[in-house]
Design a protein that fits this description.
Protein name: Transcriptional regulator KdgR
InterPro entries: GAF-like_dom_sf, HTH_MetabolicPath_Reg, Tscrpt_reg_IclR_C, Tscrpt_reg_IclR_N, WH-like_DNA-bd_sf, WH_DNA-bd_sf
Organism: Cupriavidus numazuensis
CATH class of the largest domain: Alpha Beta
Largest sheet: 6 strands, antiparallel
Distance between the termini: 37 Å
Keywords: DNA-binding, Transcription, Transcription regulation
Shape: elongated
Radius of gyration: 23 Å
Structural class: alpha+beta
Helix content: 40-55%
CATH architecture of the largest domain: 2-Layer Sandwich
Number of helices: 10
CATH topology of the largest domain: Beta-Lactamase
C-alpha cells in the first residue's frame, strides 16, 4: 500500500480540495461550480463548505451563492514567515552535517538577482571557512547560484538571469560552459567544483526542493581538506552527508539524487 493511502482522511481531503480549488478563483465559485469541478456529491460539498465558512477559511457572498477564500490562510502563513520556517527546520540538520563532516555549511535562497545567505553553521574545529549571514553571493559564478538556476523551469530561470546584477569580483563564465554546468547539475542532482572565489576550497552545493520539484533553496559546504595529522571526513564522505541533509529538508519526497559510481 502506498504511504499516501495508508492514513487516509477523506473529510480532510475534501476540505483541502475546496481550498486549493478556490485559490485559483479570486472571484469565487458557486456551490454548483465547486461540485462540478471536484466531481463530488452536492451533500458532501455542502457540509464541508458550511464548516469552512463557520471556521472563516471561506467567505460567502451576500447573496449566499458564491464562495471565496478569506484572508485567514494568509494571516496564518504570516505568523511564521516561510524563510523563518525553513531556517528553523534547516539549522538542526545543518548543525549535524557540520559536526559529522567537520565542515561549515550555509543555506542560500534566490533574492533579487543573486543568492542571499539566510543561515550559516560553522565547522566544529578551531578554523575553517564560513560565509557571513546576510551576505549576497553571485548567481552566475557560485555553486549555490548554479544549483538554484539549474533546478527551475526555463521561464523562471530566464527571469532570474534577467534580474541578475553582477556582484563585486564576479567571474565571467562562457555561455556554452554555463549551459553544460546547469545540465550536469540536473543530471547529477548537485554541484561540486573548485571555488571560483577562494583557493584550496571545493564547493559542494545541493538543492532543497519544493513540493513541485524545483529548488526552493540550496545547501552549500565550502570543503577544506586538512593536510596535518588529523584525518577528517573525505570530500566524498562530506558530499554524501550534504546530499542526505538536503534530501531530508526537501518537500518533494520523490526527488532522487544520483550518486557517482565508485571506482572498483
Amino acid at each position: 500500500m502506498d504511504d499516501n493511502d495508508r492514513y487516509r482522511a477523506p473529510a480532510l481531503d475534501k476540505g483541502l480540495d475546496i481550498l486549493e480549488l478556490l485559490a485559483e478563483y479570486p472571484d469565487g465559485l458557486t456551490r454548483a461550480e465547486i461540485v462540478k469541478a471536484l466531481g463530488r456529491g452536492q451533500s458532501e460539498i455542502y457540509r464541508m463548505l458550511e464548516r469552512l465558512v463557520a471556521r472563516q477559511y471561506v467567505t460567502r457572498s451576500v447573496g449566499g451563492d458564491r464562495h471565496a477564500l478569506s484572508l485567514k490562510l494568509f494571516a496564518l502563513a504570516h505568523r511564521h514567515p516561510p524563510v523563518n520556517r525553513l531556517v528553523t527546520q534547516a539549522l538542526p540538520v545543518m548543525d549535524v552535517y557540520a559536526r559529522q563532516a567537520e565542515q561549515s555549511c550555509h543555506l542560500g535562497m534566490y533574492d533579487r538577482g543573486n543568492v542571499l545567505i539566510v543561515a550559516q553553521v560553522p565547522g566544529p574545529g578551531e578554523w575553517g571557512l564560513s560565509i557571513r549571514l546576510g551576505a549576497r553571493v553571485g548567481l552566475v559564478d557560485t555553486g549555490s547560484g548554479h544549483v538554484l538556476l539549474a533546478c527551475q523551469t526555463e521561464e523562471r530561470r530566464t527571469q532570474m538571469l534577467d534580474e541578475h546584477v553582477a556582484v563585486v569580483g564576479e567571474v565571467k563564465i562562457p555561455e556554452d560552459e554555463f549551459a553544460q554546468t546547469l545540465a550536469s547539475i540536473r543530471e547529477l542532482g548537485y554541484k561540486q567544483r573548485e571555488s571560483l572565489q577562494s583557493f584550496g576550497v571545493v564547493d559542494i552545493s545541493c538543492p532543497i526542493f519544493d513540493p513541485q520539484g524545483y529548488a526552493l533553496a540550496v545547501l552549500t559546504s565550502p570543503y577544506i581538506r586538512r593536510i596535518d595529522r588529523h584525518a577528517g571526513p573525505s570530500l566524498d564522505e562530506a558530499r554524501e552527508l550534504l546530499i542526505e541533509a538536503a534530501r531530508s529538508l526537501s518537500l518533494n519526497a520523490k526527488v532522487e539524487i544520483e550518486q557517482p559510481e565508485q571506482p572498483e
